[in-house]
Structures are given as C-alpha cells and as structure tokens.
Design goal:
single chain, about 475 residues, mainly alpha, Citrate Synthase, domain 1, Cytochrome p450-Terp, domain 2, 22 helices, 2 strands, binds acetyl coenzyme *A, binds oxaloacetate ion, Citrate synthase, transferase, Citrate_synth-like_sm_a-sub, Citrate_synthase
Length: about 475
C-alpha cells in the first residue's frame, strides 16, 4: 500500500517495474494472508487513536442532496480525486498501464492483474497473473441449474435483470453462507468471502455470455472455457468474437478500468450495504448490479449510444459542430440529461473516458468509424454547452460517453430496443472486481452492519431550532 502523492507514486511504479523481474509465484490467498493482519492493525489504531477525529460537517444539504461529498464510508481499493480521477491503491490508470501484466500477445491491463492489485495493494508478477487466470478458468463453467434458469427467461427480459438473477441464484454454491451456518469464527469470514468472490468472478463471463447468446444468437453452441486464456479472452470467445484481437484488447482495458470507482457510487455502495448484513457475496453483488442498471449510473452507456444514434439519424450526412450544439440544446430544453456527461464527484474529463479515447486514437479503423467520430465531435462541443446551460457541476464526459459506442463498432450492434441492450452487462462483469474486493476487506476488517440515522423534514427543522 502506498501514498498517492505523485513523487511517491513514481517511485512505487519504478520499484514495481524492477520487482517484476523477480518472478514470485504466490497465490492471491498467500499474499492476502500477509496483508490482512497489517490492515487489521491499521484499523485498530485508527479506531483507538483517532476515533474522535472530525472528517467534515454533516449539513442539511448533505441529507437532502444525496449525501454528495459526505465522507462516510470505508473503501480500501481505490480513491477518487475530483480532478485527477481514479487511483487504485494510489496508482492512476496510466500507472497501471505501465506496471500491470497484460495477456500473452496483448498490451492492455487484464482483469486478473487489476483484481490482484485491488485485493492486495500489490503488483502481481507475470507468473502470479497467469496462475490466477488459470484458477479462474478452472472454476468458470456454470452449474446446470443456472444454465436452465437463464435459458428459461424470456429473451425480452433486460440482460441486466437476467444477470442479477443468475448472480443471486449462484448463492446456492455459497461457501460463506455454509460456513456461517456451521458457526465459524468471525476472524475466518474473509477466507470464505474470498473463495466465493473468486468463484463468482470466474463464472461471470459464462453467465454473461449465455445471456447474450440466448437473446441474440439463440441455439448457437457456446464454446467451452479455454484453460489457457485469461478471463476476458474467454468472455470474448464465448460472446462469439474470439478471433477479434482488437475487441479482446478493448474489453480487457474496459473491464480493468471500470472495475472500481471508490465506494460511494451507487453499485458499490449498494453491494457494500447488502454485504454488511452478512448476506453472501452473490447476494451482495446481485444487489449492486441492480443499482448499476439505472440510467443515471451504469445504464448510461446504453443511453449514450441510443442518444448518439438518434443524433446521427436526425442530423444526417453532414454533421457539424453547430448542428451538434443545436441537438444538445434540444435535449436540454426537453428537460433530459445529456447522457455520458456530468458526475457526482469528478470535475474534469473522466480519465477512463480519456483512456478509451486513447485506445481509439491508435486504431485507424476506430478513427474512421462514424459513431466513434461522433462521440469525439460531441466532446468538442458539449462541455461549452453544458457550462452555458449552467446546471451541472461537471460539464465533462464520464466513462459512459464512449464505452458503448466503441462496442458498437466492434459488432455489438444489437440495439433492437433499449430493453434488450447488452452494453451494461459488460460493466456488470467488470464492477464485480471492486465490489467483491471490498466484500473480502469488509469481512477481514470486521466492519459492522451499515445503519446510518435518517431524519424526517420535521425532525431536521426541530434540530435546527435547537
Ligand atoms: C459510471 C457512471 O455512473 S458515470 C455517470 C453516468 N450517468 C450519466 O452520464 C447520466 C447523465 N449525468 C447525470 O445525470 C448526472 O451528472 C449524474 C447523475 C452523473 C451526477 O448527478 P449530480 O451529482 O446530482 O450532478 P450535479 O450536482 O452536477 O447536478 C446538478 C443539476 O445538473 C443537472 N445535470 C447533471 N448532469 C447533467 C447532464 N449530463 N445533462 C443535463 N443536466 C445535468 C442535474 O440533473 C441537476 O439538475 P436539477 O438541479 O434540476 O436536479
Ligand atoms: O463514481 C460514480 O459515482 C459513478 C461512476 O463513475 C462509477 O461508478 O464508475
């Protein structure tokens, strides 16, 4: 674990690069066994030495304003800075791109190396990353009852609803729940939480790919999991795009950088709350997925694509900055939000959006794609329009402004109707990295059930008068 000042980070990054020469072959469990006692001690000291320290005031505007800015949660794996954006254990996306191992033949960060960093605060070696990939691949096939459950659902049921159902039903397998029923000690909770979390992460690609197959390619055989591939390599293969190296690399990057966004976002917070009741990791993450399925959160990637396609249709062949500006004003004047813009914390363009743009900038096929071009052109116009409109505190793009449109280029064009659009499911596969990491840490640290105090308006007025 390390501080996030830029010089400390630079030193860490160069040390991490050097360390990678020594090929450690520890398992993620072994590394956690070493890290957990240190973190437990850190929390104990925080509570005893600084338990009464003040981190900020609670104002009426916090209570009635979605708790924006209120520092009220513990979340270990990442912290979001309004200007710099996300840092995973102090590392920015660019740092991660330098130090986290990629897949054989690839360049982008992969889910396994990001998961390792999130869980342990350490950079995995190549060998450790491969070993984690193999472990996940070996656990990746779905139980038959889950296949039957998913196959029984109507193809018109939103893929996010299906994903949440599949994840929740997988709790039939929960080792955490079984161990709890046996009456294990609290100090052992985290080890079962870790087993469930790895099992769930391993199965998510097969579950998500089955949903896609059932809706868009019914009857098409699903490939078996290839034990030599990384998690996302297998996911792309099961989605039916296995020969598309660029899409595979895009999804590796996408899934790694969407993995965690500190704890206050709606999906992470929901999963954290549900987990705090000691509901097992499957139930906790299923709950988080349903928060992700809202249009102000993860579903915005589908909304962006729908909105950009409507813009394309309405503006026709020759789209100019001026015509985009008019379309933006039309959206705003009709009382809708501009999807993919604004953020609860960020006050600058989202570095995840920038990383996806950078991916596009290095690939001529993407640069020539009309919908990808439109995303870029919209970015050149929208911040000024949103500033003039004057409502949003952040007129810049968030990650959702680009992500779905790039998938459209790579062939995920099935957008028959919003209620069957698949894009947010990929976000759902990714966000498990962060939510399940925190689930493990919450149990390792023995965090209590969440139960903030609520107030009615009358009660608030009474308190103010006092
Ligand atoms: C992965 C993610 O979840 S990233 C976010 C994805 N969501 C979107 O892209 C949807 C569009 N954006 C939004 O709706 C918002 O910016 C949110 C939900 C992301 C953040 O909400 P808030 O923190 O409440 O934003 P903020 O404090 O800036 O809102 C102030 C006002 O500006 C409006 N506003 C915020 N963003 C936008 C936008 N993109 N377009 C138009 N108006 C906006 C809000 O609706 C609010 O209006 P109100 O006072 O009439 O209620
Ligand atoms: O942080 C937020 O509120 C929303 C977001 O970008 C995410 O969850 O990835």
């Amino acid at each position: 674990m390390f501080r996030s000042s830029s010089s400390a980070t630079a030193r860490y990054v160069s040390r991490a690069c050097a360390q990678r020469r020594f090929a450690s072959t520890k398992t993620v469990r072994e590394v956690l066994e070493e890290v957990v006692p240190k973190k437990q001690l850190q929390l104990k000291q925080l509570k005893t030495e600084h338990g009464q320290a003040v981190l900020g005031d609670v104002k009426v505007e916090h209570v009635v304003g979605g708790m924006r800015g209120l520092k009220a949660m513990l979340w270990e794996a990442s912290v979001l800075d309004p200007i710099e954006g996300i840092r995973f254990h102090g590392l920015s996306i660019a740092d991660c791109q330098k130090v986290l191992p990629a897949a054989p033949g690839g360049k982008e960060i992969i889910a396994e190396s990001m998961l390792w960093l999130l869980l342990t605060g350490k950079i995995p070696t190549e060998a450790e990353t491969r070993q984690l990939s193999r472990e996940l691949a070996e656990k990746g096939e779905l139980p038959e009852y889950i296949e039957k459950l998913i196959d029984s659902l109507p193809s018109t049921l939103h893929p996010m609803t299906q994903l949440g159902m599949g994840v929740a039903a997988l709790n039939h397998e929960s080792k955490f729940q079984q161990a709890y029923e046996r009456g294990i000690k609290k100090s052992e909770y985290w080890t079962y939480a870790l087993e469930d979390s790895l099992d769930l992460l391993a199965k998510l690609p097969a579950l998500a790919a089955r949903i896609y197959r059932n809706i868009y390619n019914p009857g098409k055989p699903l490939p078996k999991i290839n034990k030599d591939l990384d998690l996302v390599g297998n996911y792309v293969n099961m989605l039916g795009y296995g020969d598309n190296h660029d899409l595979t690399e895009y999804l590796r990057l996408y899934i790694a950088i969407h993995g965690d966004h500190e704890g206050g976002n709606a999906s992470a917070h929901t999963s954290h709350l549900v987990g705090s009741t000691l509901a097992d990791p499957y139930l906790a993450y299923a709950a988080g997925l349903y928060a992700l399925a809202g249009p102000l959160h993860g579903l915005a990637n589908q909304e962006v694509l729908r909105w950009q396609m409507n813009m394309q249709k309405e503006l026709g062949g020759n789209i100019t900055h001026e015509s985009i500006k008019e379309f933006l004003w039309k959206t705003l004047k009709s009382g809708q939000v501009v999807p993919g813009y604004g953020h609860g914390v960020l006050r600058n363009p989202d570095p995840r959006f920038m990383a996806l743009q950078q991916f596009c900038d290095t690939r001529p096929a993407l640069l020539q794609d009309p919908i990808v071009q439109l995303v870029k052109k919209t970015y050149e116009v929208a911040p000024a329009v949103l500033k003039e409109h004057g409502k949003t505190k952040n007129p810049y793009p968030n990650v959702d402004a680009a992500s779905g449109c790039v998938l459209y280029h790579y062939g995920l064009t099935q957008f028959k109707a919003s209620h069957t659009a698949y894009y947010t499911v990929i976000f759902g596969v990714s966000r498990a990295l962060g939510c399940l990491t925190q689930y493990v840490w919450s149990r390792a640290l023995g965090l209590p059930i969440e139960r903030p105090k609520s107030l009615s308006m009358d009660a608030i007025e009474k308190l103010i008068k006092q």
